[in-house]
């Protein structure tokens, strides 16, 4: 993947996945995002003035699409939104023709969400050389900007990654967020990384990625500093992998009581959409350990940083000063 996402100088040209990236680059994204936040707010900056960013969403999304749109607008870019279910693909136009048309309109960046693994990667191989592609989620594969906003949030609350114990809980098998987060947390060097969930929802051989597997929630949560909860991705489940939502909550739902097993200062994260009462109790979502809405806010600055880095406009700005 890096053969495509990095240019000949090792700079990020497209942002397709976390796997294989160096920690320096991840830290650069986090530091750039931090530099865009001033007094908790993200100011409008001219880093992408004159550029056109296109949101190409082949799968529905609210949070991710809107934070990308806000991020592009805060960078002073022009933004086009395509909800592909309702536009040209239903008329049979093929993807390459669509990309050629957008290229002819002098677009600079495509933000792509698609249910097929490798969709963003495929586009990066076929677009004109001046265009950057950002993967906003490809099937069950990766969701790298979500991982970066999660890393930002962890660093904000916990500082250094090295001493941390992190647990990712729930439907690991169908989750691109889990996969990107596992890569990012390994690259940034947390001391212990756990995945917790029923056997049916944990892919076989995942230990090879450097994680410990727990099928019991209580043992998985013991003394962890960070808990990343995931929803059941029922739309991706081929067969009945699970008992009812109620039974799932009995075994794997995060409640106030179970949260006490973790470190007293543990933070609770969730990429959304949340299913209250299925993977997490409402009181935990709204409780004092939850940083879930902070994740959403951080998504704007982190996506701004990734857009400016891939289009190479940060260095231009420095040079012009
Ligand atoms: C995630 C996604 O779409 O992969 N959500 C998100 O981006 N905020 C997780 C999910 O759908 O469960």
Explain what you see.
- With 321 residues, this protein is α/β, with parallel strands linked by helices.
- The protein folds into two domains: 2-141 and 299-320, Aspartate/ornithine carbamoyltransferase (Rossmann fold, 3-Layer(aba) Sandwich); 144-296, Aspartate/ornithine carbamoyltransferase (Rossmann fold, 3-Layer(aba) Sandwich).
- It has helices spanning 2-5, 23-36, 63-74, 95-104, 119-126, 144-158, 176-187, 217-221, 245-252, 256-259, 282-285, 292-310, 313-320, and strands spanning 37-38, 41-42, 52-57, 78-83, 109-114, 132-138, 165-169, 192-196, 212-214, 226-229, 267-269.
- The longest helix is centred in the C-terminal third of the chain and has 19 residues, at 292-310.
- It is globular and about 55 Å long.
- The two termini are 34 Å apart.
- Bound molecules: N-carbamoyl-L-aspartate.
- N-carbamoyl-L-aspartate is lined by residues 63-64, 137, 143, 146, 176-177, 231, 233, 271-272.
Secondary-structure map with pairings?
Layout: H1 2-5, H2 23-36, E1 37-38, E2 41-42, E3 52-57, H3 63-74, E4 78-83, H4 95-104, E5 109-114, H5 119-126, E6 132-138, H6 144-158, E7 165-169, H7 176-187, E8 192-196, E9 212-214, H8 217-221, E10 226-229, H9 245-252, H10 256-259, E11 267-269, H11 282-285, H12 292-310, H13 313-320
Parallel strand pairs: 3-4, 3-5, 5-6, 7-8, 7-10, 8-9, 10-11
Antiparallel strand pairs: 1-2
Helix pairs in contact: 2-6, 2-12, 3-12, 6-7, 6-12
The protein binds N-carbamoyl-L-aspartate.
N-carbamoyl-L-aspartate binds next to helix 3 and helix 7.
């Amino acid at each position: 993947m890096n053969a495509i996402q990095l240019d000949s100088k090792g700079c990020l040209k497209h942002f397709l996945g976390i796997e294989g990236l160096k920690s320096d680059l991840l830290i650069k994204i986090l530091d750039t995002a931090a530099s865009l936040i001033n007094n908790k707010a993200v100011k409008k900056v001219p880093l992408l003035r004159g550029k056109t960013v296109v949101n190409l969403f082949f799968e529905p999304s609210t949070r991710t699409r809107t934070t990308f749109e806000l991020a592009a607008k805060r960078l002073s870019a022009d933004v086009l939104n395509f909800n592909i279910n309702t536009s040209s693909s239903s008329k049979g136009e093929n993807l390459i023709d669509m990309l050629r048309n957008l290229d002819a309109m002098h677009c600079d960046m495509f933000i792509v969400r698609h249910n097929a693994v490798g969709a963003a990667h495929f586009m990066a191989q076929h677009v004109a050389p001046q265009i950057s592609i950002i993967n906003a989620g490809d099937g069950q594969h990766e969701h790298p900007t979500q991982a970066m906003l999660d890393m930002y949030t962890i660093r904000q609350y916990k500082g250094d990654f090295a001493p941390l114990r992190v647990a990712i809980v729930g439907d690991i098998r169908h989750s691109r967020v889990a996969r990107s987060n596992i890569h990012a947390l390994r690259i940034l060097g947390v001391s212990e990384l756990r995945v917790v969930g029923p056997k049916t929802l944990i892919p076989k051989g995942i230990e090879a990625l450097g994680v410990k597997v727990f099928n019991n929630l209580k043992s998985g949560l013991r003394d962890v500093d960070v808990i990343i909860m995931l929803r059941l991705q029922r739309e991706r489940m081929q067969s009945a992998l699970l008992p009812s939502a109620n039974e799932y909550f009995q075994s794997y739902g995060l409640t106030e009581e179970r949260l006490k097993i973790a470190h007293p200062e543990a933070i609770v994260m969730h990429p959304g959409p949340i299913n209250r009462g299925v993977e997490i109790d409402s009181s935990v979502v709204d409780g004092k350990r939850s940083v879930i809405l902070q994740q959403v806010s951080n998504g704007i600055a982190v996506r701004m940083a990734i857009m400016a880095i891939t289009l190479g406009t940060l260095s231009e700005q420095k040079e012009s000063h």
